[in-house]
């Protein structure tokens, strides 16, 4: 799957509920004092139904080793987005006005990363990016990838100015065709040294990048469509696509705790702690992270993560609050 997940409203998810206790695993029974992980903490769906933990939800939604049921999950997500118009307001779920603050925050985050990770902030180097950007829910001579790229909004408004080449990955065909038009040379205000190179109509869970092609792989508002096992498998495959010193940027909606399942478009909004557990299973390290500002209060919080395949030096590690995970109330 791979179209951009809109920063959706959390107002229709239910005002308050108590998450039920998770069933006890063998390790939990042996060590009952261990704090619960986010995958063991409950969540709910967009109708307000509660799940005891993520495993219970995933077994219901994609089965347990049932390829046909998992295919249905992904096909329903694609079908949903095929009914959305290929416009900025369409791909941003009717919140087209968040485009400007989204791009501004992303650009500030990208500039910080490039200044720290690349000599002369990448100037004079051929930078390449891959972009995977779903619906809302470079000037550095490098190559980038836009995953779940939608109509090319992030590429056109941001990445094409910093990266010499940008590849786009998007499974919804009419979004990708719109991106081709939007990113045609005659529609860009950049030099001939910057271009959108490749347009891949491939789901995220099926994509494997060329080895060591990308300086940055940008994944925005789409990873919620992947089941946990496909999330982990994607990042493990995608690592081979990074150049030495390259990194991932993940920008996503954040649940307050546990997770929230969107039954309509077949996606999951994970908590920050849930993401961090998955990053650990992917063998990824948080180089930097930052909260999105200036979004409407009714939307989920949004966070940006810069992820590397090597452990950051001590000075670059983000300071994490020491918290104990336990069943809690979502308000």
UniProtKB/TrEMBL annotation:
Kindly state which keywords UniProt assigns to this record, in alphabetical order: Methyltransferase, S-adenosyl-L-methionine, Transferase
- Can the keyword Nucleotide-binding be found in this entry's annotation? no
Its Enzyme Commission number? 2.1.1.244
Task: Tell me the Gene Ontology biological-process terms attached to this UniProt entry.
Answer: methylation
Q: Which GO terms describe its cellular component?
A: cytoplasm
Please list the reactions this protein catalyses.
Answer: N-terminal L-prolyl-L-prolyl-L-lysyl-[protein] + 2 S-adenosyl-L-methionine = N-terminal N,N-dimethyl-L-prolyl-L-prolyl-L-lysyl-[protein] + 2 S-adenosyl-L-homocysteine + 2 H(+); N-terminal L-alanyl-L-prolyl-L-lysyl-[protein] + 3 S-adenosyl-L-methionine = N-terminal N,N,N-trimethyl-L-alanyl-L-prolyl-L-lysyl-[protein] + 3 S-adenosyl-L-homocysteine + 3 H(+); N-terminal L-seryl-L-prolyl-L-lysyl-[protein] + 3 S-adenosyl-L-methionine = N-terminal N,N,N-trimethyl-L-seryl-L-prolyl-L-lysyl-[protein] + 3 S-adenosyl-L-homocysteine + 3 H(+)
Record GO terms (molecular function): N-terminal protein N-methyltransferase activity
- Origin superkingdom: Eukaryota
| Protein purpose | Alpha-N-methyltransferase that methylates the N-terminus of target proteins containing the N-terminal motif [Ala/Pro/Ser]-Pro-Lys when the initiator Met is cleaved. Specifically catalyzes mono-, di- or tri-methylation of exposed alpha-amino group of Ala or Ser residue in the [Ala/Ser]-Pro-Lys motif and mono- or di-methylation of Pro in the Pro-Pro-Lys motif.
By sequence similarity, the record places it as follows: Belongs to the methyltransferase superfamily. NTM1 family.
Protein name from the UniProt record: Alpha N-terminal protein methyltransferase 1
């Amino acid at each position: 799957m791979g179209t951009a997940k809109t920063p959706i409203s959390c107002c229709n998810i239910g005002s308050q509920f108590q998450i039920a206790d998770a069933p006890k695993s063998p390790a939990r029974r042996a060590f009952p004092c261990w704090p619960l992980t986010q995958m063991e903490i409950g969540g709910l769906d967009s109708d307000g139904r509660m799940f005891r933990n993520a495993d219970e939800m995933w077994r219901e939604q994609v089965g347990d080793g049932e390829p046909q049921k998992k295919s249905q999950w992904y096909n329903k997500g694609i079908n949903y987005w095929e009914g959305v118009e290929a416009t900025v307001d369409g791909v941003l779920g009717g919140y087209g006005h968040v485009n400007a603050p989204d791009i501004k925050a992303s650009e500030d985050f990208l500039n910080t990363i490039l200044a720290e990770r690349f000599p002369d902030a990448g100037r004079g180097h051929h930078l390449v990016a891959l972009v995977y950007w779903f619906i809302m829910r470079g000037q550095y001579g490098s190559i980038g990838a836009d995953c779940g790229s939608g109509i090319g909004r992030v590429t056109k408004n941001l990445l094409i100015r910093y990266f010499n080449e940008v590849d786009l990955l998007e499974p919804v065909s009419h979004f990708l065709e719109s991106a081709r038009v939007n990113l045609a040379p005659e529609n860009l205000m950049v030099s001939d040294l910057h271009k959108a190179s490749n347009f891949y109509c491939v789901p995220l869970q099926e994509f494997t990048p060329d080895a060591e092609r990308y300086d940055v792989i940008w994944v925005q508002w789409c990873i919620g469509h992947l089941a946990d096992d496909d999330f982990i498998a994607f990042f493990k495959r995608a690592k081979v696509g990074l150049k030495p010193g390259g990194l991932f940027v993940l920008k996503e909606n954040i649940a307050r705790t546990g997770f929230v399942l969107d039954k309509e478009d077949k996606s999951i909004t994970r908590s920050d702690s849930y993401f961090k557990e998955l990053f650990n299973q992917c063998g990824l390290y948080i180089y930097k992270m930052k909260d999105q500002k200036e979004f409407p209060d009714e939307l989920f919080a949004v966070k940006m993560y810069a992820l590397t395949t090597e452990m950051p030096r001590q000075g670059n590690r983000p300071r994490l609050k020491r918290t104990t995970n336990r069943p809690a109330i979502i308000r």
